[in-house]
């Protein structure tokens, strides 16, 4: 699915996407609740991700035309460097790969967690497909949000370098990180049955630890 085909999407689908993004921003768990325990990757959420990536392409291109000559973070230049027909596919593949690694790492911790009395209780009550649905729902909201914030920040920086102090990009990065650690666990707890926000949050945090430990172990073994 390339960018030109996205622009030809039906008005109903575009309206559904914007309604989804607005609702997700306000109530992430309630918005993804209908997708709980699907046990399969939902086509509507996949469409929302593709539309979100298409919107991000438009934003990045417009920001480039306005005058984003320098991108210190290389984020927008990275987006613009891809052929618009390839970026949706690249995004889907990256989301799938990251989610699969996260889900497997979380399951490793969850199983070990049950052997340790008194340990913090992480839990994901559903399947890998439920994790992917959560990731697609989150990405449909987060990818355009990140692109919008970076575009505005970088355009303002180019137009008024003295107005944007070095601390502003740092605050923006922290804000995006806060959004991620709140909204992604909320999405996971919505698509996974019998899973609270805190259990999903602990599963996400534990998966990061497991991934880093495995990477460190593999690095030691390869030396």
Q: Which structural class do the helices and strands define?
A: mainly alpha
SSE order in H/E notation?
HHHHHHHHH
Tally of separate helices: 9
Q: Averaged pLDDT, please? A: 79
Categorize the overall geometry: globular
Number of domains: 1
Topology:
Layout (H helix, E strand, L loop, with lengths): L2 H5 L3 H16 L1 H5 L10 H24 L8 H7 L5 H27 L14 H32 L7 H25 L5 H26 L1
Structural write-up:
This protein has 223 residues and is mainly alpha-helical. The protein has one domain. It has nine helices and no strands. The protein is globular and about 55 Å long.
Short précis:
This protein is mainly α. It has helices spanning 3-7, 11-26, 28-32, 43-66, 75-81, 87-113, 128-159, 167-191, 197-222.
List the defining traits of the structure above.
single chain, 223 residues, mainly alpha, 75% helix, globular
